[in-house]
Amino acid sequence: xxxxxxxxxxxxxxxxxxxxxxxxxxxxxxxxxxxxxxxxxxxxxxxxxxxxxxxxxxxxxxxxxxxxxxxxxxxxxxxxxxxxxxxxxxxxxxxxxxxxxxxxxxxxxxxxxxxxxxxxxxxxxxxxxxxxxxxxxxxxxxxxxxxxxxxxxxxxxxxxxxxxxxxxxxxxxxxxxxxxxxxxxxxxxxxxxxxxxxxxxxxxxxxxxxxxxxxxxxxxxxxxxxxxxxxxxxxxxxxxxxxxxxxxxxxxxxxxxxxxxxxxxxxxxxxxxxxxxxxxxxxxxxxxxxxxxxxxxxxxxxxxxxxxxxxxxxxxxxxxxxxxxxxxxxxxxxxxxxxxxxxxxxxxxxxxxxxxxxxxxxxxxxxxxxxxxxxxxxxxxxxxxxxxxxxxxxxxxxxxxxxxxxxxxxxxxxxxxxxxxxxxxxxxxxxxxxxxx
Length: 437
Description:
Layout: H1 8-19, E1 26-27, E2 30-31, H2 48-68, E3 86-89, E4 92-95, H3 101-118, H4 137-147, E5 157-158, E6 161-162, H5 174-187, H6 194-205, H7 210-213, H8 220-234, H9 249-252, H10 266-283, H11 288-297, H12 314-329, E7 330-333, H13 380-386, H14 389-396, E8 408-411, H15 421-436
Antiparallel strand pairs: 1-2, 3-4, 5-6, 7-8
């Protein structure tokens, strides 16, 4: 602890908690005599996950040492991408290395060093390993033998999410559908009033797929199946018998301010959650995820101008799906105007149309910086020459920066230009119903 920079007094407090802890077991409703564990904190103790994070830094340091010394080769998705040797998620660890016996033995040595230093032994029965599709079978056997991994298949789920192996078909989300069906069957006893059904739908049924929707693009058939189940439950269907639906579902998904019940559209909500992932890539370009995706898909550009290919990974396709919605609401805040393309980018703060309504014609002006004077003010003469009066009025409302700051991206529908899933959902809902009208 002291090597990590914590004060001795703080270390003493933590060690006092670790050494003085006592447990008591409840048997048939009666608490038995308390006892002190011989191995310190156990799983389930509130302090345990926090201390585990400090200990896991030791494994991270060992892996970094082997990578820096050249003894371990990290995995790269392409030549320009940063190398990844390990990822830590709470008490889950993923290790990446080249598939050969020498590398596997080095990883085993790192794990043995970690176990010797911390006293945490590895349970190999719970370990699984995933190889590339081109890795020979004999190499796979050598690696498994060096690591003492007996499991032949990788886990179907990791951190509660389906492992993205191939296309994310409807079958990947069957467990989620079964979980929702089970909940609705438990509630559908015929005694719940409609307000109670509405509350259960909004607080549980619609929240149940949120975790998955924030990572993957669910097939439209899955979203429509969720909608069908929720709709039947709301109108009181029992034992497979359909009851009368007194209002169209398209009316009920409208917000309450417009006469609806405020139910979510699963398709649009899925896209709004994925738009948040795309937003993070824009505002956190130094994150590991952003660096990997940039090296793989847009090495010389930016994500808002990127079109992901059809053979991209399922995670990348999910981000692309959210990006489609994000692009419609992104708007540039004018600084020096050098990054903003006049005719292609969103930069005029006007509802429903952030681009100029003026046709480009033969105008050769490309960037907003060409519309600004040297002191950062708008060149009114140039604006009146090339733009319609309606555009000129809106452009002059934009407060130009005399300090010539860099242009920045903002989220137009959100308050103060900050993205939120709620504003993205409302924006996507309006866009969908405007296009279908």
